Amino acid sequence: MQSFSVSVNDNDSFMCSSTDRVFDDVIGVKVCPGCHYRTNFEFVNQDFKIKRKTYDLSATYDGYYIASLKFKETLNREGITGINFVAISKEPEYFVMFVSNVVSFDTKKRKSRAEKFCSVCANYESYVGATPAFLKELPRFDLSRTDVAFGSGNAKHPLLIASESFVSLVKREKLKGLYFEPTRT
């Protein structure tokens, strides 16, 4: 059975930070006193407004997955588990999507590199070498996330990994903004 890494378009928006700093007007996001990057990766800014509303699944520049109401309703109807959709006050048709199903990424086989370890928060400034995705095992769920967050600074985020049936669902429902590349084991 084949699995796929999922790529999405950006929505030209930031949830709470640029790559190198958390915005001053965002209250409540936790920041490491050592490296000054955010440490609460599930913080949702209720004042967030999406700039580009073209896609059913997209990503902010600071690594948040944003799902349309159509995407959320499709996954709920199909019984896709391990997905949490958080409502956004100022965007009733959009949700922040968090995936709790985790699959192990093979950083050794992929030759991914972690750079600039922070001894205060135990995060890296950046993790490079995400694609093509190498997994240690096949995912057990239709939609999973990797155990490694890729990117740099506040823009780090896990890869999404999809099953063949999830890819078929996206195509059948004509969900916009998702692209798939086969993973390797």
Keywords:
185 residues; mainly beta; eleven-stranded mixed sheet; 3 helices
Summarize the structure.
Helix content is 13%, strand content 35%.
Task: Write a structural description.
The protein has one domain (3-182). It contains 3 helices and 11 strands, in the order βββαβββαββββαβ. It has helices at 69-78, 107-110, 164-173, and strands spanning 3-10, 57-59, 65-68, 83-88, 91-99, 102-103, 113-117, 124-128, 143-152, 157-163, 178-182. Strands 1, 2, 3, 4, 5, 6, 7, 8, 9, 10 and 11 form an 11-stranded mixed sheet that branches. A hairpin with a 4-residue loop joins strand 9 (143-152) and strand 10. The mean pLDDT is 93.
How many strand elements?
A: 11
First-to-last CA distance: 11 Å
Bulk shape = globular
Strand proportion: 25-35%
Low-confidence stretches: none
Helix-strand makeup class:
mainly beta
Mean pLDDT: 93
Q: Can you write the helix and strand succession as a string?
A: EEEHEEEHEEEEHE
Tell me the number of structural domains. 1
- Give a quick account of the main beta sheet: strands, pairing sense, barrel closure: 11 strands, mixed
Radius of gyration, taken over Cα atoms and rounded to an integer in Å: 16 Å
Count of DSSP H/I helices: 3
The percentage helix is 10-25%
Topology (SSEs and partners):
Layout lengths: L2 E8 L46 E3 L5 E4 H10 L4 E6 L2 E9 L2 E2 L3 H4 L2 E5 L6 E5 L14 E10 L4 E7 H10 L4 E5 L3
Parallel strand pairs: 1-2, 6-9
Antiparallel strand pairs: 1-10, 1-11, 2-3, 3-5, 4-5, 7-8, 8-9, 9-10
